[in-house]
Each structure stands twice: as C-alpha cells, then as structure tokens.
Design goal:
- This protein has 410 residues and is an alpha/beta fold.
- The protein has 14 helices and 15 strands.
- It has two domains: 126 residues, no CATH class; 254 residues, no CATH class.
- The strands form five sheets. Strands 1, 2, 3, 4, 5, 10 and 11 form a seven-stranded mixed beta sheet that branches. A two-stranded antiparallel ribbon has the order 6-9. Strands 7-8 form a two-stranded antiparallel sheet.
- The protein is elongated and about 90 Å long.
- It starts with a helix and ends with a helix.
C-alpha cells in the first residue's frame, strides 16, 4: 500500500500537470529570436528516423530499382526535349513522366520558340502514356483546399496527363527539405488532383496507384530507397545520341527532369533538396537530391510497398504523459529521501540520459523492423525537462503553496 502511495499521490499528479503546463505556456509565448531562425529551420525537419538512413541501414541491402529510369533534361530547349521523348518512344518506354511545368512562354523569354512548342506538342501527341507537371496555387488552410490548379500550355493539354509537383517540398525555404508527399489535394472546384508520382503510377499500374491513394493519409512519409546510386540514369546527351541499350528503356517508367549540367555534380542548384539521406543530419551543407529523384523514390515506395505508418498524435501524447508521470514519481522520491537528495542532480541526469538513449533506440528499432514512425518528440522534451521542473515544482512551488495555506490558517 505504501508503494502505491509513493506512485499515486497528489505531488506526482501535480508535477506531471506542471511539466505539461510549462511546455504549453512556453510554446504559446511565440517569442521570435532572429539569431535562432536558421537553427529552427534545420531542427524543424529533423527526425530521429533520419539517423536510420545515414547510420543504421546498410545501403548494400537495398535492392537496385529496375523499373524506373531517370533522364536528365538539363537546360535543354523544348525542341530538344521533344527529340528526347521521340527517342524514348522509339525504344518503347511504357510511361514517360516529365518533372517540369511547360507553361506558355512570353515572347521575350529566352526559351520562347513556337517551332519548339509545335515539336513538343507533336511528341506529346505521339506518346501513349505521358505525365507532366502542374502546380497547385493559393492554399486556403481553413477549408483545406487550393484555389486553383496552374496547368501547362493549353495546346499541350489534350495530349498529356498532369500531376502536381510543387507540394511536399519547401521550395521557398533556406533549407529546402523534402521528406513527405500528399498523395492528392483538393481544389475549390471540388476536383481531387493526384501528385505527380501517383499519376505516373496510375498509367503504369493502376492497382498499385490505387493502393497508394486509398491509404487516405493527408501526407505520406517518403521511404527513400536511395539517391542516383539506386537508379539507372542517363544524361541528356546520352539520350539524344541514343547511347544506351534498348532493353534499358523498354517497358519501363522513364522520369525526365532537371539534374543540372551533370548528375554527379555536388552543388547548390534549382530543384535540388535536402532529404533524410543527407550525410549531414544537422547543419546541412549541400542539398543532396534533385526533385526528379525524389519522385523516383516515391514510385519505388509504391512498387516495394515500403509505406511508413505514423503513430497517431494522441498515442504520442499518452506515451509522453506516462513517461512524465513515471519520472515525477521517481524524482519526487529522490528529493524526499535525505540520503539521496544531495545527489539529486547527478542521479536525475543519469536517469534522463538512460531514458533518452532508450527512446532513441526503441524509435530506430521500430522504424527498422516495422516501417513505423513512433513520434516521440514530445516524450524527448518531457525527458529533458522533467528533472529540473520536478525540483522547481517541489522545492519552490509546493513550498510557496504551503506557506500561503499556513498564512490563511487552512
């Protein structure tokens, strides 16, 4: 009975409530510190499971993707891209997806070329299965819809299918990270628009695409097979010169997209993003993956069915409350024990360190074994704060409360 009283008592309950009130109050302050903005952006995208890709998973155990080929379009003009498409058709690509937005160009644009537009239109017309990029614009967060869909040049539309390519990544950020993708989004007209990869898969294998879309998650966490080391890739010149084996293309999904002037270059560039595969988990130096390769990884996730399921928010809150309650019970007993209280700082920090290691390890093991992302961020905050806040709660707040009660003769 005495043991239960040590665990279930008003001090432990009050201490747990205090920890969560403290975290809620601090997060509600909304104080902005300019010198922390960059660090905040970096940590905002970090997740414990990112360690899995860089430190836990052996890349050699990940199979090579043999259903997707990636083609660099570099800075090619539309007439050259049309030639690429014609060549890929010649070698019987099953589906061609182009990670580009072919909007109508004004006459003063350096890429404006009516003949090139006509050639590209004809290439689209002669391609049985082709997907190009569209763009969702003006979100309405309250209604969870987008105002409209920005489509490619009108003359192209009768011959292509489109999928949005601008959602999931942080294009305007100083640290453009890409780790999630919404399978579909809704516009005000009521139409549901599929993401680019889902639309490509729908043309290649409708049942696989349907399985992906029917998971009904607002966002899917992307499981990354790998970077260009896991995919067949061709430079723009290789396609134009037909410098490849025919069996490389026949019956495959061919993704075309911008990959700089050479896909082995390591540099900052447009349409290049940080991903969980980045070798630097924090303080990232160079973006590691082009957008078209991210789309290839989404397709691989569908093929391999390596979908990542995420812990519900309520479950993560419950876990954090249980850990907090356990800590407050243990720490309170240490504070109230005269022999142990003098060692409180050392003992509490040791317990917190062990708990942090256990949380990290369990999180990684669960992800590795079940592709399940246990969201233990709140639990980590509880572990970090509970030791000091327990001491403040018992030594300061409870003593103040007791003095008030004595003065009031209660």
């Amino acid at each position: 009975m005495s043991f239960l009283r040590k665990i279930f008592n008003i001090t432990t309950i009050g201490g747990t409530v205090f920890v969560f009130l403290f975290m809620w109050g601090f997060s509600s302050l909304g104080i902005q510190f300019e010198f922390l903005n960059v660090l905040e952006e970096v940590f905002d995208d970090f997740d414990l499971t990112h360690i899995y890709y860089s430190k836990i998973r052996d890349p050699q155990t990940v199979p090579y993707e043999n259903k997707v080929v990636i083609v660099n379009i570099g800075k090619l003009k539309r007439r050259d891209i049309a030639q690429q498409i014609n060549i890929l058709n010649k070698y019987k690509a099953k589906v061609i997806g182009i990670d580009a937005r072919f909007y109508a160009l004004p006459e003063d644009n350096e890429y404006y070329d009516p003949v090139g537009d006509f050639l590209l239109q004809q290439a689209f017309k002669n391609t049985e299965n082709i997907v190009i990029g569209s763009e969702l614009v003006n979100p309405d967060p309250k209604k969870q819809v987008w105002d409209s869909l920005k489509l490619p040049q009108e003359s192209f539309l009768p011959h292509v299918t489109t999928g949005f390519v601008n959602i999931g990544n942080k294009e305007g950020s100083d640290f453009p990270f890409w780790g999630n993708i919404p399978p579909k989004e809704k516009v005000k007209s009521g139409e549901k628009i599929h993401c680019f990869a889902a639309e490509v898969m729908r043309l290649y294998n409708p049942s696989i695409a349907e399985e992906f879309l029917n998971r009904s998650n607002e966002e899917e966490i992307i499981y990354f097979k790998g970077n260009l080391d896991k995919y067949t890739k061709l430079e723009a010149s290789q396609v134009l010169e037909e410098d490849f084996s025919p069996e490389l293309i026949e019956g495959k999904i061919v993704l075309m997209g911008y990959m700089g002037t050479g896909y082995n270059d390591y540099f900052f560039d447009e349409d290049k993003f940080y991903t969980p595969l980045n070798s630097n988990l924090l303080g990232r130096s160079i973006p590691d993956m082009f957008g078209v390769v991210v789309h290839a990884n989404i397709l691989s996730m569908m093929f391999d069915k390596t979908y990542i399921n995420k812990m519900p928010e309520m479950a993560s809150i419950i876990v954090a409350i249980l850990i907090c309650y356990f800590n407050m019970a243990i720490f309170a007993q240490i504070i109230y024990n005269p022999k142990l209280s003098v060692w409180y700082n050392g003992i509490s920090k040791l317990i917190q360190l062990i708990e942090a290691i256990v949380v990290y390890t369990v999180n990684l093991l669960i992800f590795d074994s079940f592709n399940y992302q246990a969201d233990l961020t709140l639990t980590i905050f509880v572990v970090i704060l509970s030791g000091d806040l327990c001491e403040i709660y018992i030594d300061v707040l409870l003593n103040i409360f007791k003095r008030i009660l004595l003065k009031l003769n209660i």
